[in-house]
Amino acid sequence: MENKKQMTGYTDTVFMIEPVAFDYNPETAVNNLFQKTADKQSTETQKLALAEFNNMVNLLKNEGVKVITIKDTPQPHKPDSIFPNNWVSFHENNQVVLYPMFAENRRVERRMDILEEIEKQLDRKFKITDYSDCEAKNIFLEGTGSYVPDRKNKIAYASISQRTHEVLFKKFCEENNFKPVIYNASQKVNGEFHPIYHTNVIMCDAAKHTIICLEVIRDEQERKMVVSEIEKSGKKVFEISEHQMNNFAGNMLLVKNKSEELILVMSKSAFDLLTKEQISELESNYKLLVCPIPTIEKYGGGSARCMIAEIF
């Protein structure tokens, strides 16, 4: 088990938002092409999503991960509140960053009472940087959805989209001492290429690997540049296909438990499309935690990583 212990840059404490009105969100669907149109009544969708959420929380807790859960409020309606990593990120030295959100109905997810409750539970005081005023200029950066941080090596990867503004991303990196690695990625839907809405569906940072879908980086020079940055950081490129990415194999998250074991959290749909060789390589380095969350993935267009905000 010793090779599964490499702690720098990963946390054993996370926070998650319990949904009360999870639903398909048409405001985000305009550029989140992972979302599928709702074919169930809202109450049924919420019921299924809540069961999936509670099961995932229990799976994490059973593995020794500390999970702070905060229940959403019914009003105003927040269909995507289950994905808190887009509006807030937590960093070392009690630093917290708040982000500008693309969809207007997601902006109400930013709630100071949530941060106050986490402060209370952890007995600490946060120092907050707030970029949310950029929304007035239609400049967006949706947290660790928009960028994928390699915290150990102080690198942040970002694929540019309507939700990930290059200038603001560079500002974030400069203020938080990350080296920015910027590229463009697109997915093919109905024969047309569209920018991929979030970087964290393309790639995941793990202790010894960077899990990434290289084929969606269509420009060969950009692709080579990204591979070079990953290899220079000392990590192995773990390549997934576009089909695997479309089923959220890039949307994994590495956490650790109280015993310092590294746990790679992923959805069942992601796991089911990994090859035997891929599973073997991951299992030799991490404990795999597989969460069935089909309703959340289908209507929310996000997966396991999106549901978890890490606390450092």
Describe this structure in words.
The protein is an alpha/beta fold. The chain has one domain (2-310): L-arginine/glycine Amidinotransferase, Chain A (5-stranded Propeller), CATH 3.75.10. The protein has ten helices and 17 strands. β7, α5 (166-175) and β8 (179-183) form a beta-alpha-beta unit. α2 crosses α10 (294-300). The mean pLDDT is 95.
What is the ordering of alpha helices and beta strands? EHHEEEHEHEEHEEEEEHEHEEHHEHE
Ranges where pLDDT stays below 50 over 5 or more residues in a row are none
Q: What is the overall number of helices? A: 10
- How much beta, percentage-wise? 15-25%
The Cα radius of gyration reads: 18 Å
Number of domains: 1
Features:
3-stranded mixed sheet, L-arginine/glycine Amidinotransferase, Chain A, 24% strand, alpha/beta, globular, 28% helix, 312 residues
Would you spell out the secondary-structure blueprint of this structure?
Blueprint: E1 13-18, H1 26-29, H2 42-62, E2 66-71, E3 88-91, E4 95-98, H3 112-122, E5 127-130, H4 143-146, E6 147-150, E7 155-159, H5 166-175, E8 179-183, E9 186-189, E10 192-195, E11 203-205, E12 209-212, H6 220-232, E13 236-239, H7 242-246, E14 253-256, E15 262-267, H8 268-272, H9 276-283, E16 287-291, H10 294-300, E17 309-310
Parallel strand pairs: 1-2, 4-5, 7-8, 12-13, 15-16
Antiparallel strand pairs: 1-17, 3-4, 6-7, 9-10, 11-12, 14-15
Helix pairs in contact: 2-10
Kindly summarize this structure in a few lines.
By secondary structure, the protein is α/β, with parallel strands linked by helices.
